[in-house]
């Protein structure tokens, strides 16, 4: 065993087998959960992102990372990556509008599920890794902000697209289920 340089922290790096088991479980849950379309309520799409963002902000301000340019950059990178992944994930969702009742359903595509598993794999891999001069608190905050921003961006994209599809269905005629 080699000694650590002064100031170096010992971090726990989860074994690869544990990561593989976790990813397989996440993939299985996603496949089972998304086998059939679920009702889509446009008026409730904001709930989960609001709770997630509130939790992330409370955690971020309760335990702030050291305020340096590097820390801020890492957290901002987490935000940007989360928004990009969330927007793509939202684009991959299949949204259907019943032409008669205008009831809406949504289902995640297989590509969207792969994107989520890859996102979790990257988060799992980065957790506990020594990242040089980047404080661990900044990495933790960036991962939390990325998850919250991913959820928000996905719901915004789904909401915009669902509203457009519903307006198109209503313009074609038929009874309204409003």
Topology:
Layout: H1 16-33, E1 38-39, H2 47-62, H3 69-92, E2 94-97, E3 104-107, H4 110-126, H5 136-172
Antiparallel strand pairs: 1-3, 2-3
Helix pairs in contact: 1-4, 2-5, 3-4, 3-5
Can you put this structure into words, describing what you see?
- The protein has 178 residues and is mostly helical.
- It has one domain.
- Helix content is 63%, strand content 6%.
- It is built from five helices and three strands.
- The chain has helices spanning 16-33, 47-62, 69-92, 110-126, 136-172, and strands at residues 38-39, 94-97, 104-107.
- Strands 1-3-2 form a three-stranded antiparallel beta sheet, with helices on one face.
- The longest helix is centred in the last third of the chain and has 37 residues, at 136-172.
- The termini are far apart.
- The mean pLDDT is 79.
């Amino acid at each position: 065993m080699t000694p650590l340089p002064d100031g170096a922290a010992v971090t726990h790096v989860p074994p690869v087998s544990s990561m593989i088991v976790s990813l397989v479980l996440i993939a299985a849950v996603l496949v089972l959960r998304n086998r059939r379309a679920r009702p889509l309520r446009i008026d409730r799409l904001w709930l989960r992102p609001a709770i997630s963002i509130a939790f992330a902000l409370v955690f971020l301000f309760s335990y702030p990372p050291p305020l340096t340019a590097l820390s801020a950059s890492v957290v901002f990178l987490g935000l940007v990556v989360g928004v990009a992944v969330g927007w793509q994930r939202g684009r991959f969702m299949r949204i259907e509008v019943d032409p008669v009742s205008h009831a809406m359903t949504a289902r995640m595509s297989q590509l969207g599920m792969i994107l989520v598993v890859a996102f979790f794999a990257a988060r799992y891999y980065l957790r506990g890794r020594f990242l040089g001069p980047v404080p661990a608190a900044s990495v933790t905050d960036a991962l939390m902000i990325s998850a919250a921003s991913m959820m928000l961006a996905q719901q915004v994209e789904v909401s915009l697209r669902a509203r457009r599809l519903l307006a198109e269905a209503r313009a074609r005629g038929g009874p309204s289920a409003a």
